[in-house]
Amino acid sequence: xxxxxxxxxxxxxxxxxxxxxxxxxxxxxxxxxxxxxxxxxxxxxxxxxxxxxxxxxxxxxxxxxxxxxxxxxxxxxxxxxxxxxxxxxxxxxxxxxxxxxxxxxxxxxxxxxxxxxxxxxxxxxxxxxxxxxxxxxxxxxxxxxxxxxxxxxxxxxxxxxxxxxxxxxxxxxxxxxxxxxxxxxxxxxxxxxxxxxxxxxxxxxxxxxxxxxxxxxxxxxxxxxxxxxxxxxxxxxxxxxxxxxxxxxxxxxxxxxxxxxxxxxxxxxxxxxxxxxxxxxxxxxxxxxxxxxxxxxxxxxxxxxxxxxxxxxxxxxxxxxxxxxxxxxxxxxxxxxxxxxxxxxxxxxxxxxxxxxxxxxxxxxxx
Length: 367
Known about the structure:
Number of helices: 6
Distance between the termini: 74 Å
Shape: elongated
């Protein structure tokens, strides 16, 4: 095998593919990148048995071949090569030579015969989503995914697809995030849960262009095709939490909030909250203002924000980080915060429409 590649192109592809490579395992093939020559291109694949990433880059193929090269070492080498082009050469004994100019590296490759085959989807469902829409929706829900729930299905984001609409749902023990967007889709309703780990890598691969992501859906796997990259992942099995049971239209207090003012106020009050000294925020809504306060072993802080209150005056305890995550994700100048009572979930929604819903469980305040 002998190929000549643009160093920058090879480096970018290798670093992206490496994200699906296992760092430590009893199977050395999974610690490597599978490299296979194709006509005028080099295909590169990383696969950790849960998520696989592959791409093909333009290359001058002098001699065809296939090899597995340790991903971490290979990426470190390519990052430090200063020349525009780099040559990868592999002999019959799988001895790899990476060179250009006066630089030479030698590595021992791994036989590709034991590399696991990436899952494929036959007779599956397919939908197409705008890259910017998918990236935005994932980014604005993924922070609510449970990272350590013993139920694996709760470590993912649920996709609910119906004609004309895509809904993403993420939930953990303390909060819920829902995003809705219009999409061009006329097929049957689809429901599936994708690991948050997979989606985190998917949105990193999505460039800032107006193209589309093609999603192939099988019974156990999902495939994302993103501008030259293919991401394959298993789906999560099980019963997703019945989040609809905690949604309610009941509201005794509706507060209209200027998002920027509330974010800045919460950030100021939170300065005395640390990982060591934790405490919830106390939010009192009365007389056209929100009084925000907290106290820890470090001290106390108070602030106020003008708001518009419709309904009962009320007081709640809430975690600062959860409020900030929801307000930042909304990206609206103004939002509505709806409250049933101090012990029911606090709901943050847009002033018009239902593009998003963020629920946060309140904290019982002492006294």
